[in-house]
UniProtKB/TrEMBL annotation:
It is found in: Cytoplasm. It comes from the Bacteria. This is Argininosuccinate lyase. Coiled coil: none annotated. Keywords: Amino-acid biosynthesis, Arginine biosynthesis, Cytoplasm, Lyase. It is an enzyme of class 4 (lyase). Belongs to the lyase 1 family. Argininosuccinate lyase subfamily. GO terms for molecular function: argininosuccinate lyase activity. Residues 8-302 form the Fumarate lyase N-terminal domain. It comes from Leuconostoc holzapfelii. InterPro entries: Arg_succ_lyase_C, Argininosuccinate_lyase, Fumarase/histidase_N, Fumarate_lyase_CS, Fumarate_lyase_fam, Fumarate_lyase_N, L-Aspartase-like. Its EC number is 4.3.2.1. The keyword Transport does not apply.
Length: 460
């Protein structure tokens, strides 16, 4: 017999470095509070069911509560000899209350214990993710409200396409973050299921009360299959997938913040407190934080691929491979929380160069579609209208004359249907405000959308 908690059938100890390889305490100590919380509920249930005596249950719960206070103060000391958080807590409990601590593990396995801790850990944090997303959405809405009628170039292929408003652009991100919000909200459903009581894999012969434990821990559902209970990590994969999509959205916006704050674009300027300087070039103001969010998207995708790959060929039920599930989820939780907060801060302090934005739509032929549409309304088949305007654009590029600066005679030579009202039609403001189709960029639409979104946030 060796000194391990499970050492009964062993005669030899592993070398320290081998033990260290198998240990998870260096990261799963983050679940100390959840581990103790789960154990308190379990001990209470054992006492209530008469599986241990009420006095024993009391002793165990009192000891665990003392450990909970130490965990909150950060004074718990962990030992790699005890491998993981579960056995560390049990060792600490034994040191506190003596051998009666050994009764806590009745009708339980580390397999359902670790699954319970991990569910609790994610379940406790998802509401914070949702709150942080709401804050970001509110920030976007405030900015959109200030810029519902700020005209800028819209892009496809990063080429000037058609004029839009900056507010409309911001609301596109609002909608993406709304889907992220809904995905994390749904993530709660699959996280809010209690594995405890599955024991090692097959259930237990003890008369446990899983509904009581679920109630104590605030779980609204219970795994109904013990094999699934101990081997399901879908909730963690779903979290990483949701986080990956969120980071993708942040990263796309980060790219635009970086690009738009360049000398060439100069649409926006980041506030000093959300940018950095250079150690050699005194003039520099870099969008480091936007770049970091863009960069951290990579590690988030990596975590998703990592866990999917870890899980892909695991036979039922528990396998030690699954110990690899937590570190990446912990890391990604930090990443999404921090990145989302950084974005709220960055956007709140943004300076918008409205004049640069609108100037970008003045001599760029982004009104070419207006002219083609105009001809189409006058009965010219759209394909033909497209070709006529294409010719005018070519002429305009060669003579450095935007469409709205061409004399009527020139325009009429290309298409006799063109009349004087075309100059109004060709203005970027007109182009924007005529796009009143559902989902279009017209200022009136944007204002309506802002009101709708605001009401939705307030109803949360
Ligand atoms: N540290 C382990 C993990 O994180 C706990 C479960 C260990 N169970 C076992 N049978 N080895 O997965």
């Amino acid at each position: 017999m060796t000194t391990k908690l499970w050492g009964g059938r062993f005669t030899e100890n592993a070398a320290e470095w081998v033990d260290a390889f198998g240990a998870s305490i260096h990261f799963d100590q983050q679940m100390a509070a959840e581990d103790i919380e789960g154990s308190i509920a379990h001990a209470k249930m054992l006492g209530k069911q008469g599986i241990i005596t009420p006095a024993e249950a009391d002793q165990i719960v009192t000891g665990l509560m003392a450990l909970q206070a130490e965990a909150a103060e950060g004074t718990l000391v962990f030992d790699v000899q005890h491998e993981d958080i579960h056995m560390n807590i049990e060792a600490q409990l034994t040191a506190k209350i003596g051998p009666v601590a050994g009764k806590l593990h009745t009708a339980r396995s580390r397999n359902d214990q670790v699954a319970t801790d991990f569910h609790l850990w994610v379940k406790h944090r998802l509401p914070h993710v949702l709150a942080t997303l709401t804050e970001l959405q509110q920030t976007l809405l405030n900015l959109a409200n200030n810029h519902a009628d700020t005209i800028m170039s819209g892009y496809t292929h990063l080429q000037h396409a058609q004029p839009i408003t900056y507010g409309h652009y911001l609301l596109a991100y609002f909608d993406m973050f709304q889907r992220d919000y809904e995905r994390f909200e749904f993530n709660q459903k699959h996280t809010d299921i209690l594995p405890l009581g599955a024991a090692a894999l097959a259930g237990t012969t003890f008369p446990i009360d899983r509904a009581y434990v679920a109630d104590e821990l605030g779980f609204s559902a219970i795994y109904h299959n013990s094999l699934d209970a101990v081997s399901d990590r879908d909730f963690a994969v779903e979290f990483l997938a949701n986080a990956s999509l969120l980071m993708m959205h942040l990263s796309r916006m980060a790219e635009e913040l970086i690009l738009w704050s360049t000398y060439e674009f100069n649409y926006i300027e980041l506030s000093d407190d959300f940018s950095t300087g250079s150690s050699i070039m005194p003039q520099k103001k870099n969008a480091d934080f936007a770049e970091l969010v863009r960069g951290k998207t990579g590690r988030t995708y990596g975590a998703l691929m990592g866990l999917l790959t870890t899980m892909k060929a695991l036979p039922l039920a528990y396998n030690k491979d699954m110990q690899e599930d937590k570190a990446q989820v912990f890391d990604v939780m930090d990443t999404v929380m921090a990145s989302t907060k950084i974005f709220s801060g960055m956007l709140s302090g943004l300076t918008i160069h409205e004049e640069r934005m609108v100037a970008s739509t003045q001599d760029d032929f982004s009104n070419a579609t207006e002219l083609a549409d105009y001809l189409a309304t006058k009965g010219v088949p759209f394909r033909q209208a497209h070709a006529i305007v294409g010719q005018l654009v070519l002429q305009g590029i060669q003579t450095k004359t935007p469409l709205q600066a061409m004399p009527l005679s020139v325009l009429q030579a290309a298409a006799p249907q063109i009349e004087d009202d075309i100059y109004h039609v060709l203005q970027s403001e007109t182009a924007v405000n005529r796009r009143t189709s559902l989902g279009g960029t017209a200022v009136a639409n944007v204002k309506k959308e802002i009101a709708r979104h605001q009401a939705m946030l307030e109803a949360r």
